[in-house]
Amino acid sequence: MSSACATGSVPLVTPSGIVATPSTTSINLSWNAVTGADSYIVELCSGGNAGSAGLSDFTASSGTFVANSDGSVTKAAGSGLVLQSPAVGDLKGATISIDLKFTSTATKRLYVKLNNNESNNSNNKIGEAYDNTTSDRKTLTFTVPANSAYSTGNDYIALRFESAVAATIYSISVTPAGGGGDNTPENCNFYPSENNSITIPGLNPNTSYRYRVKAVREIESSQETESSAYSTAATTKTLPTGTAINEWTTDNSYTVFQQGNDLVVRGGEVKSLEVYSISGACIARAENTESINLAQLSSGALIVRINEKTVKKIIWKQ
Q: For the chain, which residues make up each domain, given as ranges?
């Protein structure tokens, strides 16, 4: 016996292509439209400690290892290995402990890195250990500097073993400063959006926010709704008060300049053009035009948003 599919039953896919554009007190999020979605829900959270990570959370982003019956893993000599944790939040001040036994004596190294798994081992390095220091089982401990410039607010740890290293890894623990867990709960708010973009105002400067999005639609002849899974959580940070204009990220495919009292864009199709103050307030908006008149403005720094994705900077002079 067969049953008919529900009306409009194409499953909603998880929103993708999410772009976060932060200002001092707001964040704009945009994403690819989802076929069949009536609206979207954005979850935005701040506060809370980063999550912890153990050996079972690490995966090989490069190379291979053998999983043993006792829960340990073995890395043989002859090829490199990178064990990488998932992104778990802000790891400034975090402690990384590795319980292992080196079984090689080739004077080669294990590198511990933050947000970098590249072969250039000096990049984002937190610490290192040589395999010939001792063959005894030991616990290596490393600490991420509390002011680490490598932190993005949603950090991962990568352990890069040089190819000549052989070792058995019994456990790995990544413990955020303060212990992680639920000692400091997250403050989460939910924002509905009828379109595939939203600007969320009223945020705190210089603060990390975690965001994710899901698609929603109403079920016909029902008061209920159905939704996709949330997108993978990511983190962005609002800008500090008084951020220097050269700290803004730019997209060099467009050129933005002042021509008299007009702000002009060149370099590609312009479907929408938005102008914001440094504080994040929207000053002007236009569609399907490469210029916008700003005769009413006094001198100062402006943020220009093109096609709801591209951020440029300009110093406006009157």
A: 19-47+185-237, 53-179, 245-316
Domain 19-47+185-237 sits in CATH 3.30.1490.20: no
- Listed residue (201, 260, 188) closest to 42, CA to CA: 188
Q: What are phi and psi of 273, to 5 degrees?
A: -135, 120
Q: How many whole angstroms from its chain centre is CA 207?
A: 14
Quote helix, strand, coil % in the chain, to nearest 5.
5, 45, 55
* CATH architecture of residue range(s) 245-316: Sandwich (2.60)
The predicted-structure confidence for 60-110, as pLDDT tens digits, reads as follows 888 888 888 778 899 999 888 999 888 777 788 889 999 999 998 888 899
Please write the tens of the pLDDT for every residue from 222-264: 667 788 888 877 777 777 665 433 334 445 567 777 888 888 8
Q: Do residues 127 and 112 lie in contact, with contact meaning Cβ atoms separated by under 8 Å?
A: yes
Return the H-helix or E-strand segment holding 83: strand 81-84
Instruction: Compute φ and ψ for 153, nearest 5 degrees.
Output: 95, -15
Backbone φ and ψ for 147, nearest 5 degrees, come out as -110, 30
Query: Does 245-316 match 19-47+185-237 at the fold level?
Result: yes
Q: Which residues pair with 67 in a beta bridge?
A: 73
**165 pLDDT higher than 80:** yes
- Total length of the chain: 318
In whole angstroms, give the CA distance from residue 83 to residue 101: 16
Architecture of domain 53-179: Sandwich (2.60)
Contacts of 242 (CB under 8 A, 6+ apart): none
Q: How far apart are CA 178 and CA 103, in angstroms?
A: 34
| pLDDT one-digit tens code per residue, 266-299 | 877 888 888 877 666 678 888 888 888 888 877 7
